[in-house]
Amino acid sequence: MTVVDTGPPADVAQPNASELRVEPTIGLEWSEAVEQWGAEQATSPAQTRGAWLHRAPEQQVLTFYLSVRERDPKLPAPWWLRALAAGSIRSRAEGLAVEDRVAKLLENRPGWVFVPWAAEGDSGFWEYMPSERALSVPGVPTTLVLTDRHPGWLDVIPVHAGEAPPPIPVHGLADLRANLARLESLRPQ
Q1: FRET label pair with 168: which of 6, 117, 140, 177, CA 20 to 30 Å apart?
Q2: Do residues 145 and 102 touch, judged by C-beta distance below 8 A?
Q3: How many Cα atoms are found within 13 Å in the side-chain-facing hemisphere of 108?
Q4: E strands along 17-167, which residues?
Q5: Sign of the dihedral through C-alpha 19, 24, 25, 30
């Protein structure tokens, strides 16, 4: 016996094509993979690591990321996963160690606050709150973000109101430590 699907019965209302919204399943799967449940109150990057991409086997995470990225090159992903995919770091653990070393330095420095709610898939960022005092209008304090743009893995975005100035590359933790006082004293441009 052959079964032929003729669609729904004629008396069932058909949705208008303009009412249908179809999203690729793989995009939804990736969104779930980067979801960081309960990280809203995190005070360090380590406390945000509850997503699937932090717990699943590293090779599985990388393979899934690469397959999804083929379809969407601007796919949200943490800096360390983009660096791992590019071959700039050797492992997820190496990237997370960078985050932890930055956290260890800044947690003990007055004025720096970890902000866990970065863009989807990101690891959060650090803000130097006293820098806001230099602004005459509300704006964005000096911000330190982790990045895969260069092998120093850190960018500083100076305090600003309005359009963000270009990020200043920091060439690793030693450079950050040596120049932290200068970065904290940046003035609006």
Answers
A1: 117
A2: no
A3: 6
A4: 112-115, 125-128, 142-146, 154-157
A5: negative
Quote the pTM value.
0.82
**123-136 burial by CB neighbour count: b if 16+ within 10 A, else e?**
bbbbbbeebbebee
Burial code of 36-71, b = ≥16 C-beta within 10 A, e = fewer?
A: beebeebebbebbbebbbbeeeeeebbebbeebbee
At residue 13 the predicted structure's pLDDT band, cuts being 50, 70 and 90, is low
Enumerate helices (H) and strands (E) in the chain, giving the number of each.
6, 5
Amino acid in position 160? H
Nearest one of 144, 146, 166 to 156, comparing CA atoms: 144
pLDDT of residue 104: 97
pLDDT digits (tens, 9 = 90+) for 118-177: 677 788 999 999 988 877 778 899 999 999 999 999 999 999 988 999 999 999 999 999
